[in-house]
Amino acid sequence: MTDLNRRRLLAGGAIIGTGGLLAACTGNTPKENAGGAVDAARGDNAKAGKHVTIGFSAPQADHGWVAAISKNAAAEAKQYSDVTFQPVEATNDVTKQISSIQTLIDKKVDALVVLPFDGKALTAVARKAMDAGIPVVNLDRVFDTPLGYRTWIGGDNYGMGQSAGEYVGKRLKDAGVAKPVIGEVAGIDNLALTQDRSRGFKEALAKYGYRVSIRQSAQFTVESGQQVMSNILQARPKLDAVWNHDDDQGVGVLAAVTQAHRSEFFMVGGAGSANAMRLIKADKSVLKCTVTYPPTMAASAVSLARLIAQGRGMSDLTEREVPAYMVLASATVTKDNVDRYLPLGFES
């Protein structure tokens, strides 16, 4: 996600979960706003409207975060009596995902929610849906062109790195550490999301006069996290802080730390898994914080698709249309606020 798109609308923090902004209880009675115009478009978004069918497609649940995406979408759809939810088989095969989306287009669903396995590869079929009059809510992995979606909603990768860097920088500065040794366990390096996360981390640390001392990339898996962290621990006999980009691979990262009997540093996780939050709450490991990349975005995507298909806007906004871009804020979760975020965590 580019910085330009990231800053177009930082509205996601207000719609995390199944309620919030999308179902705000704004009265249905027309009223005058500050400018004197009658506001008749707002209303209670949770109130039933015309019945709509929402198609859903996502990759195979081979990762805790992706599994939570599908669960959140299905759970949200069940909240509405005016929605028929039509998911297709989850797959990491691009050709199969394209074919399944084409099936939904042929069925003339009222809206589509799509988390593409590969945004570039699925752009053409998304455009076919849009050209057929079916609005597409593009979830997280962005299509190549805005012509492929009516609305994009996703996480803030740069913001994740920024939040992690702010936490690490402030904690070390408050402790009076002058030249800290800071490690970074990144994700897949050729992905733009990994590059954005690393850039946010680097730039936030720079505010405190710090920099990353050792950085290695993993593959978003437990096995790769364990191997990479083992390498870092062997290379650096002393660390002050570590940021791991992903809580799923963090299971392996923490296993390596335990095996090496190291505890002189603190660690920040990424994405906001429930197991990571439980460790933070217990406060008995090096993991002291995680920065969120909420899979609840899938629930919000279904809610947005419903409103778009019904021709409604968001009840707490003056505008009559659902926004075109929504970037979810990355929250910093510590033992002080973990109880607030734990119900939204996914299982790694």
Task: Provide a descriptive summary of the structure in words.
The protein has eleven helices and 14 strands. By secondary structure, it is of the alpha/beta class. It folds into two domains: 187 residues, Rossmann fold, CATH 3.40.50.2300; 136 residues, Response regulator (Rossmann fold, 3-Layer(aba) Sandwich). Strands 4-3-5-6-7-13 form a six-stranded parallel sheet, with helices on both faces. The chain has a six-stranded mixed sheet with strand order 9-8-10-11-12-14, sandwiched between helices. Strands 1-2 form a two-stranded antiparallel ribbon. α7 crosses α8. The two termini are 24 Å apart. The N terminus is likely disordered.
Features:
348 residues; signal; Peripla_BP_I; SBP_2_dom; TAT_signal; 38% helix; Rossmann fold; 14 strands; Sugar ABC transporter substrate-binding protein
CATH hierarchy class name of the largest domain: Alpha Beta
How many helices in DSSP terms? 11
- Which fold name is given in CATH as the topology of the largest domain? Rossmann fold
Backbone shape: elongated
Instruction: Please name the fourth-level CATH homologous superfamily of the largest domain.
Output: Response regulator
> What is the N-to-C order of secondary-structure elements (H for helix, E for strand)?
HEEEHEHEHEEHEHEHEHEHEHEEH
Measured between the Cα atoms of the first and last residue, the distance is: 24 Å
Mean pLDDT: 89
Strand portion: 15-25%
The largest β sheet comes out as: 6 strands, parallel
- Report the count of strand segments: 14
Helix content: 25-40%
Unreliable segments of 5+ consecutive residues: 1-42
Radius of gyration: 21 Å
Organism: Actinocatenispora rupis
Main location: other
Keywords: Signal
Protein name: Sugar ABC transporter substrate-binding protein
